[in-house]
Amino acid sequence: MKLSTRGRYGVRLMLDLALHEGDGPITLKDIAARQEISEKYLSNLIPLLKNAGLVHSVRGSQGGHTLAKPPREITVKDILLVLEGSMCLTECTEKPMLCQRSGDCLVRGIWSEVTEKMLAVLESFTLAEMVERQMLKKTVLSYNI
Questions:
Q1: Burial of 129 (0-12, 13-18, 19+ CB in 10 A)
Q2: Number of domains the chain contains
Q3: CA 120, CA 101: separation in Å to the nearest integer?
Q4: Model-level pTM?
Q5: CATH code for the domain of 128
Q6: What percent of the chain stands above pLDDT 90?
Q7: Domain interval for residue 104
Q8: Are 79 and 47 in contact (CB under 8 A)?
Q9: What is the C-alpha separation between 14 and 131, in angstroms, rounded?
């Protein structure tokens, strides 16, 4: 499985919001500059994340975007499901009725198990943990300079 640009950039957008939690609403212009992603591209992701209840938007001159939930309550899985859709490796793992062989297929069982484990790992990473890792990385880098 390969993540799309939408999924990768969406995780970076959400991590940026988590890194700046408490700074008030963050503009897409600021996120785009820090993440080196087109502001226009990010503007296409925000409505999806907002509709899923992951982002809150504030209008006006002091407007921008914030996380709609605490970073510890948002997982990478949450973000990717919104932006990528189904994360199943094969269609038959999600909809067995589409394949006549699904009941007897050994390979389908393997794909199902891989999908379950992948989703469990993605669910184990919260934005809060990613922020902690980012801060630790910055600390380590500052000691090495």
A1: middle
A2: 1
A3: 26
A4: 0.87
A5: 1.10.10.10
A6: 69
A7: 5-144
A8: no
A9: 11
